[in-house]
# Entry
Amino acid sequence: MAESHFPEPEGDVADAEGLNPDNLGFMCGIEVHQQLATGKLHSRQPGDLYDVTMDTLPKEWPRFSRKLRAARGEGGKIDIAARFETRRNRSFEYVQSPNSGLIELDDQPPLSHDSSALDIALTTSALLNAKPVSLLQTMRKTVVDGSNTSGFQRTTLISTGGMLETSSEPVGISVLCLEEDSARKLDSYATDAGECVIYNLDRLGLPLIEIATEPDVKSPEHAKETSIALGRTLRQTRRVRRGLGSIRQDLNVSIACGDRIEIKGCQDLNWIPRIIKLEMARQLHFYRLANTLRSQLSLPPLPSDRRLDDVELESSVREKVARALPLKLIDVTQNFADCESKMVVNGLKKSFAMLALPLPGLAGKIGSKRLDSEGSQLPRLGRELAGAAKLAGVKGVFHSDELPAYGIESDNVESVRKALELSEADGFVLCLAPSWQAELALESVLLRARAAWHRIPQEVRNVVIKKGAPEDGTTAPMRPLPGGARMYPETDIPTQFIDSQKWQSIIDNLPMTDSQRQTRMNEFDVSKDQKDQILARELDDIFVEHQNDLPAKAWAAVLLENDEVDPRLSSLVLSAKEAGEITREAINDVIANFNGQLPKMSDIIDYAEQHDLKPADESALGDIIAAVVAERLDFVKERGMGAIGPLMGVVMQQAGAADGKAVSALLKQAILDVTK
# Structure
């Protein structure tokens, strides 16, 4: 057996910021999922998203109910994550949005790949120097959490073996895939048979580019750099969606004494280093807890490097722990008949059962809530047990290390300990729910408790969100880490060749780099702020294409103020202003009037005449200004050029429709004439 490169890990779990990634054998890779600005991948439906909630759902949108079951993968096995979802006994209700049809409902076979989405995926591959596969074979990835009506997600490998440059050092690109996005969860509610989840189908089938890096990320800060660089590369195509939720980062994190964990929900890139450091602290805590528990049962300690684990030894440990922690569920509902806790009283009114699970030897090891130096919850077994229970659909559990609390008194605790015949060294967990659900929840708790004698289980975790943002950077269990058994071929979509001619066409038409775009914008007479905003909002292609010899600063201002309007309309209206057909102040009003149309110049002129938006005649304007200056001559001589501001309003009021710039120039000249 090879000797470990990593000594016994050092570091304070309560000081996640102080943990040393190198000394702990830190490994990290990143997966990015980016929505593309195209129609749906396999149905030719538009890629619209509807801003609806359960309260605002249109009543005319149809609804469909389904139950899903796990299918066997190509190797004949059922994936562990799919098996777990099946045990949760959930049902699903789908709301059919206007951009979802028979394919989204899984009532019609899918179509081939959207050509634009495929081009974007190949373009991104080229930008990352990845090598395209010669034959596209769409696969089905088993997903039975209800977010796909079919029970699987369609995924196609596009390229492999790329390289991403970051500000620190390069990161290898393992694979780039093109896949369908999932449905959006709207709500869930409890039924006697289990949880029912409601999904909106508007997002289902939107094309996603999935990019997975090699485990080349060197530190939590480098993970943030890598995510930024990946996002920048994707935006370079100018054909990806922007906005909250359009790009999602998953973090694959491990340290030598822990194991691989996939963390989802990392929307805010600034949180990535903190989330990773807290996961390092969590893995370190549970490694140390495992060895403490092993010593209690006179079991050999875990090596400090998971590569040195002995499979036979761990199997033996698993058997001994299972004997030490048997599945023994006891109904203690009667022990809470006089309990005044609101949660307990309300549950018993619904005929819920209070079931108890003894945990021999775990008293004091389950833990209670404590915070680290940065205000994040410290890792503890109790939180992991609660997370396991919640995946069965219950709101939570009570455990012995935190009781009495929540209105449960010490008398209730002692009666439970007596009913379970526990010693002082033993702990327990309580679950209040319908009997079948409490049993499932406590079975999940027991499995997680037994896992405490081993390294952390490989699993998918979610960042804990509160009011739309990470609560403190900690995570909660979501599902077991899926394996290869979840993939099998999609037989409804023909394979597709990517020949050298197609690839060469992609190479020959790569989008401009950021520096090239900067250089191009420097050629125009616009302010730095205008240039920065145009580039940041990805409007530079529109700016160049529709400038049409218009004054650059004026065109930049109009474009930035009307960036969601057809640029052809904005350009035409500005041209009318430059031709003297409308005033400068009328530009936005005219654009708003014709928004959604593409009028002729004559239409704009007619509208300006009908609404008194044409500039005043310059000779008449000069007469008005001369009269205003003459009436206020003493004020003008006293204030000089400082009189321009006050007099502008007077002139504009008398002139009606007038170009403010022209008024300012004429007024300045008139003041100069009388103050020489």
